[in-house]
Design goal:
Elements (H helix, E strand, L loop, with lengths): L8 H4 L6 E6 L2 E4 L10 E5 L3 H22 L4 E2 L4 E2 L2 E7 L6 H16 L3 E7 L1 H7 L4 H8 L11 H4 L5 E7 L6 E6 L15 E10 L8 E9 L3 H16 L2 H7 L3 E2 L10 E2 L1 H20 L3 E2 L5 E3 H7 L1 H4 L8 E3 L2 E2 L5 E3 L2 E5 L4 H9 L10 E10 L15 E11 L1 H21 L5 E6 L10 H17 L4 E4 L9 E7 L5 E10 L1 H5 L4 E2 L5 E2 L2 E6 L4 H11 L13 E5 L5 H13 L4 E3 L6 H10 L4 E5 L1 H6 L1 E6 L4 E6 H14 L3
Parallel strand pairs: 14-20, 22-23, 29-30, 29-31
Antiparallel strand pairs: 1-2, 1-3, 4-6, 5-6, 6-11, 7-8, 8-9, 10-11, 12-13, 15-19, 16-19, 17-18, 20-21, 21-28, 22-24, 24-25, 25-28, 26-27, 31-32, 32-33
Length: 654
């Protein structure tokens, strides 16, 4: 709607109690701010994405106010909203305890019930420095105002382009300012809108501005929602996510571990985890064979010159393990006869695949050439970023590089995207959207025209898929734009899965050529494609998606036979032998545990099919099925039972 000069958002939306800020010509503004004449104004509700961000940022201010009441010596860092919540950093003498968080929640509720107003105040830099004279970190931020975008995490929340603003928390009865903070806002009109739908979740150490060279602060995390029901639903999702944590399930189900002796981010797979991984990889290999891919293998280490040619040493050095300087030869007097060379653990497979393409002359008749490898790569992730299987330092990528002509590239991209989506669905993920990552203006090789052509082509392919396409400005690799498939798991969380990158630049850098139909030498187009991303990360995602209850075709043990009594052990072994002969991973529980304990053990181990046999079953040549949900199907003839299980595994239906 359009407005007249001087009207405020509060006046415009006075009948809308759920509107907490105004969007004025696309920019969020506090409701008490006068609106320019003719502006396009929309109300932002508290349950919208922008409204939730404002709610959470306002709650962060209330938390900081409570912290400085509890610990008057606390110095303020930064307090932005984040996905599903907020945090605030503090410089304090002692770390916060769980008891402190409970005390702070009570203090916050008291502040909220006082119905304090959030009041925006535009100040000069001198006024801001006077107001923040006892806050050294805020004073440092004021010095970073002109380069806030590059100063560190969260700086833009406090300062940036435009006016310097302070937000006062004003007591509604006395009109006195009871607390204030340097902040760009916007905020809720008052604290009462926070209600009691918030919680402080945890505290941790954090470096100032995310830089390990800076002072270590204490960070408190929290969450806030429009209603208690929404908060409760969130807390239940978090509890379920904790139950599904792949690190916890990996230990409980004996799938994988992270030995300290190996180092951070270097997992090992146990036999049961190895079965799942092998099943994943074997199925993927077969699908790639069917789709016309050819398999290659490359070493784990290479001379540094390869990554000079590719550009990785210029643009990706911080993500690589340090060089190993070897092969130097010395004279008897210690002088160097032959200088050594730097070798690197490979972070990417693509340069080596380019060498395979370049190893001999290529004809247009060979294109598209699809090279595929389960290639081990190594990346130096910082220790604070490493997380279970989903962020590791040593990984295996299901990496493919497709070389084609410019005329073929659009069809090949479409085919590749459909192949990727189909294969992900086979593993049980089927809720997708796409993200288009475009050129980082500060980190790219090649010319603008080439980038524009590549980006336009990817966008056309993505849009033709019918899936939602979300922009990711500046998110591309240095050599070309990419589409990434974002998949939602059983809890609705989004994971970046497959990536498809279009690259005109590496073929140029490696001088790749093929002979065209007219006899000329031409450059191929290169498509980079990883489906899992990494096998390790994909397995971590699937473990959480299925809560460890993998579908039968992936489960390490697909069937457990449980005799009702020892007298029926031989009968059950005969049934299991028939299953094994049909390629099913089956075993008999002949432990000394009592029958009910064996049933509980099979349930805890998340076995897809439990077969039970007693006297009536043996006489009838039958078994009883017990399923994961506790239901049973009794008296099923053995041949039928075997066929049911074989069909379920073959068809990936359970």
């Amino acid at each position: 709607m359009k407005v007249t000069t001087g009207t405020t958002g509060a006046e415009l939306f006075f009948e809308r109690r759920d509107v907490v800020v105004a969007r004025v010509d696309g920019e969020l503004k506090d409701l008490d701010q006068p609106l320019p004449e003719g502006a396009q104004v929309d109300g932002v509700t508290i349950d919208s994405p922008d409204g939730l961000n404002v709610l959470r940022h306002s709650t962060a201010h209330v938390m900081a106010q409570a912290v400085q009441q509890l610990r008057p010596d606390a110095k303020l860092g930064i307090g932005p909203y984040i996905t599903d919540g907020f945090y605030f950093d503090f410089d304090v003498e002692e770390p916060f305890t769980p008891e402190d968080l409970k005390t702070l929640e009570k203090m916050m509720l008291k502040i909220i019930n006082q119905n304090q107003k959030f009041v925006r105040r535009v100040v000069s830099e001198d006024e801001a420095r006077e107001a923040m004279k006892n806050e050294p970190y805020k004073l440092e931020l004021l010095g970073k105002k002109n380069d806030a975008a590059d100063a560190g995490e969260g700086v833009n929340v406090e300062v940036g382009a435009g006016d310097i603003t302070i937000y006062d928390n004003v007591d509604r009865k006395s009109g006195d300012t009871v607390w204030c903070d340097l902040c760009r806002g916007p905020h809720l009109p008052n604290t009462k809108l926070i209600s009691n739908a918030f919680a402080l979740t945890r505290s941790s150490a954090a470096y100032w501005l995310g830089n390990q060279n800076n002072q270590q602060l204490q960070r408190i995390y929290g969450t806030a929602w429009p209603t208690k029901d929404a908060l409760k639903a969130y807390q239940e999702r978090i509890a379920e996510a904790e139950r599904r944590d792949h690190r916890k399930l990996g230990a409980e189900l004996d799938l994988f571990s992270f030995p300290d002796e190996l180092g951070s981010g270097l997992p090992v797979f146990h036999p049961k985890g190895g079965i799942i991984r092998k099943a994943m990889e074997d199925y993927s290999r077969q699908r790639h064979v069917d789709a016309g891919y050819e398999f290659v293998y490359t070493p784990h280490i290479t001379k540094g010159h390869l990554y000079e040619v590719s550009g990785h040493l210029d643009w990706y050095r911080d993500g690589m393990f340090p060089a190993m300087h070897i092969d130097a030869e010395h004279n008897e007097d210690g002088t160097v006869r032959k200088p050594g060379q730097d070798y690197y653990l490979k972070p990417m497979n693509c340069p080596m695949h380019n060498l395979i393409f370049r190893s001999r002359g290529r004809s247009y008749r060979e294109l598209p050439l699809r090279l595929f490898e389960f290639g081990s790569v190594y990346r130096y992730e910082k220790s604070g970023v490493v997380h279970g299987l989903t962020r590791v330092r040593g990984m295996t990528q299901d990496d493919a590089h497709i070389y084609c002509t410019r005329e073929q590239m659009k069809d090949e991209l479409t085919t590749t995207l459909n192949f990727v989506l189909g294969l992900l669905k086979d593993y049980g993920l089927d809720d997708f959207y796409l993200e288009l990552s475009t050129k980082n203006e500060d980190k790219f090789v090649g010319d603008d025209a080439t980038w524009e052509e590549a980006t336009r082509t990817l966008a056309e392919v993505a849009e033709a898929s019918g899936l939602e396409l979300v922009p990711d400005p500046g998110g591309a690799a240095f050599y070309g734009p990419k589409i990434s498939v974002q998949a939602k798991d059983a809890l609705g969380r989004t994971w970046q899965m497959s990536t498809i990158q279009l690259d005109f630049n590496l073929p140029e850098r490696f001088e790749l050529e093929f002979q065209a139909a007219d006899g000329t030498r031409q450059r191929p187009v290169m498509i980079h494609r990883a489906l899992f991303g990494s096998v390790e990360r994909f397995m971590g995602v699937l473990t959480e998606h299925y809560a460890g209850a993998f579908p039968a075709w992936l489960a390490p043990v697909q069937v457990v036979g449980i005799p009702v009594a020892e007298a029926f052990n031989d009968y059950m072994f005969d049934v299991v032998d028939k299953l094994k002969a049909a390629g099913i991973r089956a075993e008999v529980d002949i432990s000394s545990d009592r029958f009910p304990k064996k049933i509980r053990t099979a349930s805890k181990d998340k076995i897809p099919f439990v077969l039970i046999a007693g006297g009536e079953d043996a006489e009838a040549g039958a078994v009883s099925f017990r399923f994961r949900d506790g239901s049973q199907d009794n008296g099923v003839p053995v041949a039928e039972a075997v066929q049911r299980i074989v069909d379920a595994v073959r068809n990936r239906t359970s």
